[in-house]
Amino acid sequence: MNVSGENNFDQTSVNQVERIHKVTPEEFKRKIVSSRQPVIITGKIASWKASSLWSVDYLNTIVGNKEINVHVSKNKIFTYDPEADFTFCSRKMKFTDFTDWILQEKKADEYYYLQQSPMKTSFPELLPDIETPDYIGKALFILTSLWIGTGGNISPLHYDSVENLLCQFRGRKRVLLFEPKQTPLLYPFSAYSTRGHMSQVNIDQPDIDKFPKFEKAKCIECILEPGEMIFIPAFWWHQVYSLDQLNIAVSFWWNTNFKQFFTPLGRRSVANMIWEIINN
Q1: How many CA atoms lie within 13 A of 242 on its CB side?
Q2: Which single residue of 11, 20, 235, 240 has CA 20 to 30 Å from 100?
Q3: What are phi and psi of 166, to 5 degrees?
Q4: What predicted TM-score, i.e. pTM, was given to this entire model?
Q5: Please, which pLDDT band fits residue 13 given cuts at 50, 70 and 90?
Q6: Which residues of 244-262 are buried (b: 16+ CB within 10 A; e: fewer)?
């Protein structure tokens, strides 16, 4: 299954996502993180066991019939369910049943995505197959998450308040990226809500009458190939499309520099975090 899509956005001030081969930790910190621009790094994860071992047969053997929690969607857009107090609609199922469903490659009334699953607690048996990139300081590291799905799955437009290295192992991902300064054009939900980090706009079918400023939004686009990782700086908006029948990725999150929270989107994120603490 190959899935593609077209968008007619203008280009932003960054013309493309640069590809750099095996950048050193020093170069990553000095050139990439400081520039606050997305970058694709090649050649870095080729030696990881996951790059050669992670087939469906291998994962079924290692993970087996473990019960997992997958997110569910009727339209392959995986977002919060307003009827369930703005949580993800999810279902428990056996891991092997989930991978069997992926391999069937059939249209269904609902679609599944193992989305942002913390590996340390949910898949510790797979941790020996990956490495924490040496770009990440141990004191700043937060979370390693596993993503497994099929072509057509969409993580809709949002930003994260942490730095992100997304490592692709099977299939490809199409990534659309918007600079933080374009936030007013992207109509985020209220900062005082569960979805404060998400856009209200369906950017594939935008309602321009409702969101007229979105017509001025500019993005950059890239295809993340197997064996590549992309650095998505904190507060960059991104929408991610899974391509191909089997799609497997791992994301590494770590704390951004404190000064980033003094930017407009950083201050907004702080307000959102305070709101969630109060409400919880």
Answers
A1: 31
A2: 240
A3: -100, 120
A4: 0.90
A5: low
A6: bbbbbbbbbbbbbeeebbe
Delineate the domains of the chain, giving CATH numbers in brackets. 10-279 (2.60.120.650)
For residue 173, give Cα distances in angstroms to 25, 45, 149, 205.
Answer: 25, 16, 11, 20
N- to C-terminal Cα separation, the chain: 41
Longest Cα–Cα distance of the chain, Å, equals 51
Residue with the two structure tokens 């621009």: 37
Q: What's the CA gap between 280 and 270, in Å, rounded?
A: 15
Beta bridge partners of 237: 178
For residue 238, what are the CA distances in angstroms to 38, 139, 232?
Answer: 11, 26, 8
Q: How many CA atoms lie within 13 A of 234 on its CB side?
A: 23
Helix (H) and strand (E) counts in the chain: 8, 14
Query: At residue 265, does pLDDT exceed 80?
Result: yes
- Give the per-residue pLDDT at 83: 52
Query: Tokens 């520039």, residue?
Result: 35
Q: Which residues of 105-115 are buried (b: 16+ CB within 10 A; e: fewer)?
A: eeeeeebbbbb
pLDDT for residue 124: 98
Q: Give me the mean pLDDT over the 158-187 stretch.
A: 97
Distance CA 240, CA 180 (A): 17
Please write the tens of the pLDDT for every residue from 210-221. 999 999 999 999
